[in-house]
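Lab notebook, bench 4. We co-purified these components, and the gel suggests they stay together. Before we commit to crystallization screens, I want a quick structural picture of the whole thing.
Request: model the full complex, all chains together.
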Amino acid sequence: MTGSTAAPHLTRRPTTGRSRRPGPGLPTWVYVPAVLGIVVVVLPVVGMAARVGWADLPALLSSPAALDALRLSLLTSSASTLACIVLGVPLALVLARTRFPGQGLLRALVLLPLVLPPVVGGLALLATFGRTGLLGAHLEALGVRIAFSTVAVVLAQTFVALPFLVVGLEGALRTAGRDHEAVAATLGASPTHVLARVTLPLTLPGLVSGAVLAFARSLGEFGATLTFAGSLQGRTRTLPLEIYLAREADPDAALALALLLVVVALVVVGAVHGRSRS
Amino acid sequence: MTALAPAMRSGRGAGLTLTSRLATHGVDVTLDVPAGAVLALLGPNGSGKSTTLGVAAGLVHPDAGRVALGEKVLLDVGAGIDVPPHRRGVALLRQDALLFPHLSVADNVAFAPRAAGASRRAAAAAAGHWLAQVGALDLAARRPDELSGGQAQRVALARALAADPHLLLLDEPFAALDVRSAPELRGLVRRVLLEAGRTAVVVTHDVLDVVALADHVAVLEAGEVVERGPVRDVLAAPRSAFAAGMVGTNLLTGTALGRGRLALAGGPVVVGVGEVLAGPAVAVCPPRAVALYRPPTGLAEPPAGSPRNVLPGAVLDATDRAGVIRVRVALDDPAGGAPGPHVIAADVTPAAYADLRLEPGARVRAVVKAQEVALHPGGRGDDPAAPVAPDALTDRSGP
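Here is the predicted assembly.
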């Protein structure tokens, strides 16, 4: 009568996907396109690094315009990542843990920024928050002006980066934690306590990787920012905009800044990923 | 050891009354468990046992129904009452320990006190207390993935008890454990339930769980209660096909004397194997392990041989079970000489049945090797003379 129950000696542990699973090997030819794929990604970065004038690098990177852009990029990307967490975690929870009519449509809408060209996103934001926009006109009357400000940069970055966090976390929520949440509730934990002490800790890897992707996407944001926030040094001109502007006036500076952007992105992604996997 | 009847045991348990109807699951169940009593919920897979526990815990919401624990109404669909799980005081222990993988063993057990607002220090003290109660204090610093299945379930039990529940729900709590861990944990749960007089519902497929833990039995089939009653009544004469199939073995309840001996009240002493030192216990042996001897008239001495159990009695009845004859024998009360309350069943071949002329009333000796008799702690001590033996249902072969 107990035929349905397997007898695991050790409690099951959430698989992290790190385990090397034994099995039939891959066909050898698969390695050829796989290596080509890596080359496609890495080669341009190598090519860029080869063109950088390493001797002039310190001077190029310490110009006021470069430092302003770097500072602004780090500030706005951090702010938009935070905004993505504050808004995206509840959104992912609602999508993963509840059921209501129109949920499929809502999920599709959340993904919209992923498929929209960033320039279109910028235009949409401008039409909404610009001086004469849907909300912007009312905000203008209250003396609040968002477009072409640092807030606009953060808003544009949040718009494009939010889906990365929501999708990553929702996947983690769907696969982990439900049984543990039920047990926690029967142990007297309120829904808030369950969320803080069970759900979020169990899905932390999904949250961290979603936040890292959101940060990286914010750091590289260009089209929506330029359209909605403009390019004012120190206020809205982030590193990608600075690189684009410098490209014509001073190609060497552009390459140096580009290298800086790559390094910053690698450091952030590497640091967080390295920690979350330990 | 004093054996307390359910009504005499005091504790923090409150009586459970539950009615629940779920159209989607085809479940329509009514149960009640007196305060401090333990109900065993039996039934085939998919009969609605776990769903019913879910309704009691507040994790499943029925279409109609009412759940009350003592005076407190937890659910009344008609009146719009539905107390959320965390305010019910109903703890659930499942087959899978489901320890929180990101917390240490001690923090797992401290979870409920912390959720109830206890200080870190008070919660840690409570965790230490309950880990000691289940004999797992040495595991306190471990992570859940460093525990064996038996250890994890021990910790899960401590974690559930630390919530100080009014009602404890056990959903096949030993089903995932190996043959060594299961009896250990069953003994532990038995002690915990008896000591504190907790109200509990145990879902199980194992007759030993029923005997060791429960006062009452309810059998679910296809979402409905088809049989209910005190453990000894249901096991002695199961009416449902499921309970009858479960009780396909001899269960003799009595008091352990130590050294593998069990005294049946109003019956003989049975010798078996198993570590039961004292207290209510049960001897289990399959009917095919029981041989019947017809003593030659005028010979008082039992047949000489190696089997340790030679139990005189009289044939009650016999039924044909697909080519094997199951003969039930009422064992003599050594004090009175007349047939006592205990019944043992033996499976014999039709030829042997004919040769020995085992018609009802025939004097026989039931002979069992001690090796074939397993002793377990069990019986809730209500009546050690409870006769429990496989019933000879003629409709057994039916669906």
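The radius of gyration of chain A is 23 Å. Worth comparing against the SEC data before the next meeting. Chain A has one domain: 52-277.
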